[in-house]
Target: Polyprenyl synthetase family protein
Amino acid sequence: MFQQLSHAKVFQAYAEKIEFPTTPENLYDPIRYILSLSGKRIRPLLVLMGSTLFDEEKAALALPASTAIEYFHNFSLIHDDIMDKAPLRRGQPTVHQKWNDSVGILSGDALLVKAYEELAKCPAQQLGALLRLFNKTALEVCEGQQYDMDFELRNDVTADEYIDMIRLKTSVLLGCALQMGAIVAEADEAAQQLLYAFGMNLGIAFQLQDDLLDVYGDPETFGKQVGGDIISNKKTILFIKLKELVSTADAKELDYLLNSDIASEPTKVTKMKALYARYGIEDFAVALKEKYTATAYEKLEAIDVDESRKKTLFTLADALMHRVQ
Amino acid sequence: MFQQLSHAKVFQAYAEKIEFPTTPENLYDPIRYILSLSGKRIRPLLVLMGSTLFDEEKAALALPASTAIEYFHNFSLIHDDIMDKAPLRRGQPTVHQKWNDSVGILSGDALLVKAYEELAKCPAQQLGALLRLFNKTALEVCEGQQYDMDFELRNDVTADEYIDMIRLKTSVLLGCALQMGAIVAEADEAAQQLLYAFGMNLGIAFQLQDDLLDVYGDPETFGKQVGGDIISNKKTILFIKLKELVSTADAKELDYLLNSDIASEPTKVTKMKALYARYGIEDFAVALKEKYTATAYEKLEAIDVDESRKKTLFTLADALMHRVQ
Model:
């Protein structure tokens, strides 16, 4: 029966049944609020997919782990939004904006504990392994956020450092989600590691694609303002690579574009794109993205289960990477 | 051999061996810093004592749990200090004061995860039980901190609400620490509950005593400024009970004392003490403290182990409650 329902519906049905106390209101209302803002819920689905890849019967057992991953992700959003002073999240006011910083700190803390409460519901035999993987990943996500903040204050960040930052901040959690599903399904260690690597490499590729789409995406389908990263001087892979390669002469123009208010926004985007073109930045970033995508696919291919079982994950990867199926 | 060393030394030797990564510096330096500020380390010792009460041989197995409790306590200090805008902790700059709020939020998060990392090292057979107790307690501590902040904005907090707040914010962690030790030592459920209740009731009594000492303590031995809570309008059990009982006529004087800058500090303290005396506030608070102390001792007495094994815990309780041994 479990297989007949989609993972998304099964997860939603499970998560909706979890009740939070009504008081103290300022602790639990923000948690209900952030969880109600509809995200893509991709991380909990990865847990269930990771489980189903090896054993459909075990996917129901992976529901607490999938909820733990979703809670952890939302905890990190609440705290990151405070640190980044972000007013909006998924088009709605952030928790600290709607309440205040203290409420954001404390409700985030409580949501992290709730994640561990879900973990504690996992099968006892796998609890230790799940907990160790989850802890390792949670620390890496904290490290990634710290590097991201540190990089804002530095002018010498390298492409390698950037890749490592996005690996920690966003990609390891995807690998962790998949591997947790595999652990619950009692997959062997080698298969677990391959699935983790698939998720992590796909996550890096996806983030690089996000940087690319911001500049080269189709305005009709991108959803955000094309060129937004350029306008806000965001340190993307494109920007960082340009900084690495730029000649002394062009560095002056780059500085002007970064620091002057004179250039109108469309002009700034056009001129930055010209600089990117001069140094082959788009090609560099596309090649990098392709490298991580290819590695992700290789890892999934190498897992020793029937190819038909991998279809869902390949389809998901295709969809995320906008590949023709 | 384990018994021959004091619990404090054993804990210190264990905790000192745990290494934190060197980078990112802004994530791990604050953790090293807060852990280096010498607190009383009473909570990790409670874990070890809770274990030794039932089985000396098991105390070494309780070291990860004791470290988890100490890390959790320090995580909550870092985050509470941000929320309370506290500049000093144990006489030194708080983490957010020495670095900034973002560093405080993120390094606190990482320290909470490190607590769970220690938990994951506990014996596999007890991991589920330890994790569930720890999670429940961690949520309660968050609730207590939220109530504490909520109470700052309210004028109608009752004594019962205050007791419940300090129970959640500070006392359940003491009960949890002792019970975790008992779990590792494989004590039966009834004994675990009694030990938990001993710690929780002792914690409430200790907090009430703290409120009392601030007003009635010996300036020679108190360590802090006597009357400090009165001067800062802190909502202690004394203040809250006075608010509950005060007549309309005396309420005017109370309002004046709370809101006027005219009264010099010594005058304010003297006049508040006169109000406390008029309503029997000291006697009320002493009786309440004695009630919780007595309950704590009863719970410890009721535990079914040889009386000689309880001596360390009785001695600790006597010391905390300034009782003649």
About this structure: The mean pLDDT of chain B is 94. The first helix of chain B runs from residue 7 to 16. The two ends of chain B are 28 Å apart (CA to CA).
